[in-house]
Amino acid sequence: MTGPGEGREPQGIGRFDVPRPPAMDVEPARRNGHRPAAQVAPTPTPTSTPGDEVDTAATDEPGGDLVGSPASGGTAPAVRDRPGDHWDRKVANGLAFLRRRLSGDYEVDEFGFDSELTDAVFHPLLRLLYRDWFRTEVSGIEHVPVDGPALVVGNHSGTVALDALILSAALHDKHPAHRYLRLLGADLVFRMPVVSELARKTGGTVACNPDAERLLGGGDLVGVFPEGFKGIGKLYADRYKLQRFGRGGFVSAALRTGTPIVPVAIVGGEEIYPMLADIKPLARLLKLPYFPVTPTFPWLGPLGMVPLPSKWLIEFCPPIPTAHLTDSADDPLVVFNLADQVRETIQQTLHTLLERRPDPFGP
Q1: What confidence tens digit (pLDDT) does each residue in 92-148 have?
Q2: Cα-flanking dihedrals φ and ψ of residue 67, to 5°?
Q3: pLDDT at 54 over 50
Q4: Model-level pTM greater than 0.85?
Q5: Mean pLDDT, all residues of the chain
Q6: Residue 25: closest CA among 38, 14, 6, 43
Q7: What are φ and ψ of residue 331, in 5° steps?
Q8: 254 near 236, Cβ under 8 Å?
Q9: Distance of CA 214 to CAs 149, 259, 326, Å?
Q10: In whole angstroms, what separates CA 279 from the centre of its chain?
Q11: Rounded distance, CA 220 to CA 147, Å?
Q12: Most exposed residue of 97, 134, 140, 194, measured as fewest CB within 10 angstroms of its CB?
């Protein structure tokens, strides 16, 4: 037998009703400046107006203090970006860069080109020179292909081959695809202990047809200065007068690969170290192509190596196609005619740029 209340469900509790647990005491958590794990922040009501909403992730129940605010006894709320965070990231990136360099965790191509070192060290230094010191203006960058190979041919000047480095950095920064210019250098550059390593790291290689054709065949931009030491070692009285382009070896490399040739004219390099004389006996003693005498060198010693702040203009000319002449790569007449066309294009562009820049040291 059952008692009066047995066998029946308790009053007020249905079959699917669940007893409500007792309310949690959230006061200790609020004193510590933390939100209880089970508490959910209220969402703004649709009747709120712009400007009345608050950060729901940082508030307690309506009427409460901001979690982490001084009134609640907690720490200051986290911010998205503090002024010092930018420098913290720079320091962290710098340390990560040094760790990769010391551990050897970086890549170079078959020629020794190190794109990471070029972007992190060399281009920022050259950027200060071409943008702030030389106030360089670049035009005609649309004539440089967005992709695929091209042979960039420029005039050489300046006693020190600084124009090649400035050209490579300016092209990389101004080009929409930020392409690298693989420079071809003379044998002397790659016989000097420190200079040789730096040239390889920045993408340079020996100025010979096999290396040039391999780079062009791989779709790279290749930079060449056919005047060589005759261009950078000429006197200031002969400034902006192109020297002979040699035997046109650069043209042969372009013809064999069907690569377009992009002439480029550079104004400003002749004034950075105006060469007044060449001490040939001293040059032969030191096994150098020339020993320059400038208004500041050797009179001022190391200070004489500081380039004068001349105004630079760089203009890329329309490309000259060569795909229709690939069968004439070994024809001397075709090679010389194309080399003369490139030389004449650069010379005429130099005259135009000099008219645009009447003052070598103007703004």
Answers
A1: 888 888 888 888 788 889 999 999 999 999 999 999 999 999 999 999 999 999 999
A2: -65, 130
A3: no
A4: no
A5: 82
A6: 38
A7: -90, 110
A8: no
A9: 11, 12, 16
A10: 38
A11: 8
A12: 194
Distance CA 253, CA 342 (A): 14
Cα gap 297→124, rounded to integer Å:
27
Contact by Cβ (8 Å): 307, 295: no
CB atoms within 10 A of CB 141: 15
Burial of 132 (0-12, 13-18, 19+ CB in 10 A): exposed
- Give which of 233, 303, 230, 228 is closest to 274, Cα–Cα: 233
| Residue 153: strand pairing partners | 224, 263
SS3 assignment for the chain: CCCCCCCCCCCCCCCCCCCCCCCCCCHHHHHCCCCCCCCCCCCCCCCCCCCCCCCHHHECCCCCCECCCHHHCCCCCCCCCCCCHHHHHHHHHHHHHHHHHHHCCCCCCCCCCCHHHHHHHHHHHHHHHHHHHCCCEEECHHHCCCCCCEEEEECCCCCCCHHHHHHHHHHHHHCCCCCCEEEEECHHHHHCHHHHHHHHHCCCEECCHHHHHHHHHCCCEEEECCCCHHHHCCCHHHCCCCCCCCCCHHHHHHHHHCCCEEEEEEECHHHCCCCCEECHHHHHHCCCCCCEECCCCCCCHHHHHCCCCCCCEEEECCCECCHHHHHHCCCHHHHHHHHHHHHHHHHHHHHHHHHHCCCCCCC
Confidence band, pLDDT 50/70/90 cuts, at residue 84: low
Start-to-end Cα distance in the chain = 112
Asked if residue 292 has pLDDT above 60, the reply is: yes
Spacing of C-alpha 91 from chain mean position: 19
